[in-house]
Amino acid sequence: MGISHGFKQIVAVVVGGLAGIAAWVGATLLLHRRLLDPRIRRSSSIGDILVLILIWLQLTMGIGTTYWTMQHLNGEEMIRFMGWANALITFDPSAPALLSEAALIYKLHIVLGLTLFLITPFTRLVHIWSAPLGYMIRPGYQIVRSLAPLRRTPKGPLGGAPSAGGTTVMRQQSEEGQAGA
Got the DSSP string for 62-126? Predict the structure, then answer.
């Protein structure tokens, strides 16, 4: 395709950095709200809070990797992690050795990211997979509201619905309605 590894690495730093900062701000706001809003705190389990803290830490470390990535703009970090991912997917036992020279922040970021994948089935993160995709392709709905004023329902003699007094009250009301006609 003609794109160098160094260029890919710079694009990854810029795009990943911007997305990471936006996600970090969002996670910080969510964590703040979950910890300090009493109504939300009551409905939160310890697991919910711990998962949100793990996500916040993962985002913090991901943003922190940009410093080390900027030290090697020739693409060597990009090549290292592409080789590791390829070895991991092909079950190559030499995959861990490919990360031996990587900075500790990268290793922590990878371990925490894989931990989040590991705990997903046991947390509310599993709802990621239960998205109602049919909602995206359903036909559109239009809600039509009338501009005419709402009609009030008639009140019975006791202030409730006309049937509040049973059949006798209803008969009496219908007779009164006929007498006035």
Answer: HHHHHHHHHT-TTTHHHHHHHHHHHHHHTT-TTHHHHTTTS-HHHHHHHHHHHHHHHHGGGSGGG
User: What b/e string do you get for 60-79 counting C-beta neighbours within 10 Å, with b at 16 or more?
Assistant: ebbbbbbeebeeeeebebbb
Residue-wise pLDDT for 53-71, tens only, equals 999 999 999 999 998 888 8
| Domain of residue 71, CATH code | 1.20.950.20
Domain range for 91 is 5-130
Q: Is 72 annotated as a binding residue?
A: no
Residue 32 marked in a binding site: no
In a domain, 76, yes or no: yes
Q: How far is CA 25 from CA 18, 28, 51, 73, 125, in A?
A: 11, 5, 16, 27, 19
| Total number of domains constituting the chain | 1
